Amino acid sequence: MVRGVLTATAVVVLGAASFAWAGPAGLAPHRAIYSMGLATTKPGSGIAAASGTMSYQFEDSCDGWVVENRIAVNYAYTEGGQALSATDFITWESKDGLHYRFRMRNTRDGQVTEEVEGHADLKGKGQGGVAKFTRPENFSMPLPKGTLFPTDHTLRLIDAAQGGNRTFWKVVFDGSGLDGPYEVNALIGKQSQTLPSTLVSPLLGSPYWPMHLAFFPVASPEEVPNFEMRLAYHPNGVAQEIVQTFKNFSLRGKLESVESLPRRGC
Predict the structure, then answer these.
(1) How much is the pTM?
(2) What is the domain count for the chain?
(3) Which of 12, 32, 2 is nearest to 149 (CA)?
């Protein structure tokens, strides 16, 4: 899936977006760094330029999957001035896909603008559950039947692509904000040969799927997505190219480095 400028969901979904997980599909724990830049703008966006970095790290913690994301983008505005927007997001998800913990912090020019923290549990596979927040305040949110957490969603998405499916729709909760779960509609293109790259890594040696994901808040009546993501996604979980599209602009992420991480001893 950076509130107000980038959504933390878009960062996580690099597992819906959200993408480098390990699991039955043979996906690899790894650390990836992307350079971020402005791809397109629409009239009235107010954004003249954007540049920054995104780091994505996935680890196998034996009892679950740990993901750490950080994105920092400096925006220059058409009316003058600049602002540095940053998001730090860390999650843990149990390997059975039923338990989830999340913590997110947004800052603007170093000042905290939003913090979200809590945990969520599902009653069983295919069942609903509840998310309990401790920040910004204590409250509970019901999760509808069929909700998935990000890692489970990503593993199922890869399985769908490997099975030749061209669409994949699920409800996903990632804890990136107070909007609740998203309906995530994925369009999966035909697997293509490897992309040209100056990077030399065995993680980039496989064909990839072009994917297009659209995110619709379950609680919203809007018929247009809150945001969208296009990416070139390898079967091992490495996203080589990313484009995040919002209402008035889009950002492109280019993979600058990627390295495998050792599996922790269990």
Answers:
(1) 0.88
(2) 1
(3) 12
DSSP state of 1: -
If 0-12 CB within 10 Å is exposed, 13-18 middle and 19+ buried, where does residue 266 land? exposed
Q: In sequence order, what are the residues at sequence separation of 6 or more whose Cβ sits closer than 8 angstroms to the Cβ of residue 79?
A: 46
pLDDT digits (tens, 9 = 90+) for 183-205: 999 999 999 887 777 788 888 88
Q: Is residue 3 part of a domain?
A: no
Q: Does residue 20 surpass a pLDDT of 60? A: no
Measured CA to CA, the distance from residue 11 to residue 87 in angstroms comes to: 9
Cβ neighbours of residue 102 under 8 Å, at least 6 residues apart?
89, 90, 91, 116, 117, 118, 119, 120, 174, 175, 176
Task: Identify the residue whose tokens are 């602002």.
Answer: 83
Q: What angle do CA 21, 165, 184 make, to 5 degrees?
A: 60
Q: CB atoms < 10 A from the CB of 264, how many? A: 11
| The two structure tokens encoding residue 24 | 């039955």
User: 1 in a domain, yes or no?
Assistant: no
Residue 43 contacts by C-beta under 8 Å, 6 or more apart in sequence? none
Give the phi and the psi of residue 204 in degrees, each rounded to 5: -110, 15
Closest CA to 69 of 174, 168, 147: 174
Question: What's the average model confidence in pLDDT over 10-18?
Answer: 43
Residue 265 domain-assigned? no
Q: Are 24 and 226 in contact (CB under 8 A)?
A: no
- The label of the residue with tokens 């740990």 reads 66
